[in-house]
Amino acid sequence: MRLKRIELAGFKSFVDPTRIDLDLGITAIVGPNGCGKSNIVDALRWVLGEHSAKHLRGGVMDDLIFQGSDTRSPVAVCDVELTFAIERGALATPYHELEEITIRRRLTREGGSDAFINGKMVRMKDVVDLFLDTGISTRAYAIVEQGSIARMVTAKPEERRVIFEEAAGVMKYRSRRKEAERR
Ligand code: ATP
Ligand code: MG
Q1: Cβ–Cβ < 8 Å for 133, 123
Q2: Which long-range contacts (CB under 8 A, 24 or more apart) does 106-112 make?
Q3: Tens digit of each residue's pLDDT (9 = 90 or more) over 121-165
Q4: Which segments are annotated as binding site?
Q5: Label partner for 5 (CA 20 to 30 A): which of 25, 36, 103, 151?
Q6: Best substitution site from 8, 15, 20, 35 to test ligand 1's pocket, by max atoms within 8 Å of Cβ?
Q7: pLDDT tens digit string along 46-70?
Q8: What is the pLDDT of residue 27?
Q9: Which residue ranges make up each domain of the chain?
Q10: CA angle at residue 133 from 132 to 135, to 5 degrees?
Q11: 2-136 maps to CATH 1.10.10.10
């Protein structure tokens, strides 16, 4: 799976609709301190299902919505859409025939958050399930931040196991077992 495009609006410092295309090869995002580079990674994490405001570098979820600046008023909604290119058959049904998939998440100050897969409203759990075992989930290894290599090396074996299990593709089964045990 390859991330092709990120579209954001009202998300943190990205108040105006912004589209970032990631072509084949390496894309680097550069800019001065505070220009919003890490905010893009926060957007990615959030759409993939991060539900801890702290992990998104905020105090509460509303901190994800543009809160105004000297020249602009705050907005009420933030909206992020990710487009992935997928190899046919890489995802489970009903998405196995697709070559592209879009995941969108929207948050309003009063209304909470909604998630969409290819424009259809879904539960956030459906998004998380879709990415299980692809390595792309929010706590997996697709996002390598400052300090995370050191954290991996010094992690307790049971913490490190999560990373191996994701890579080995057994997370899906573990998650289904947990769900079955809860019933
Ligand atoms: P560095 O190079 O220091 O890592 P960066 O490019 O990663 O910087 P970010 O941390 O992505 O910068 O962006 C921080 C900026 O985003 C700050 O100026 C902050 O005020 C702004 N910001 C964060 N949340 C919001 C929000 N909800 N509304 C408006 N601006 C926000
Ligand atoms: Mg940064």
Answers
A1: no
A2: 106/77, 106/78, 106/79, 106/80, 107/61, 107/62, 107/64, 107/65, 107/77, 107/78, 107/79, 108/76, 108/77, 109/62, 109/65, 109/76, 109/77, 110/76
A3: 999 999 998 888 777 776 667 788 778 888 888 989 998 888 788
A4: 32-39
A5: 151
A6: 35
A7: 999 999 999 999 999 999 999 999 9
A8: 92
A9: 2-136, 144-183
A10: 100
A11: no
Other C-beta atoms closer than 10 Å to the C-beta of 13 total 14
User: Which ligand places an atom closest to the C-alpha of 34?
Assistant: 1
Interface predicted TM-score (ipTM) of this complex, two decimals: 0.98
Ligand 1 atom closest to the CA of 32, numbered from 1: 2
Residues 6+ apart with CB under 8 A from 7: 17, 18, 19, 20, 80, 81, 82, 83
Kindly state the tokens that stand for 80: 């992020």
The amino acid sitting at 95 is Y
- Measured in Å, residue 44 CA sits from the centre of ligand 2 at 14
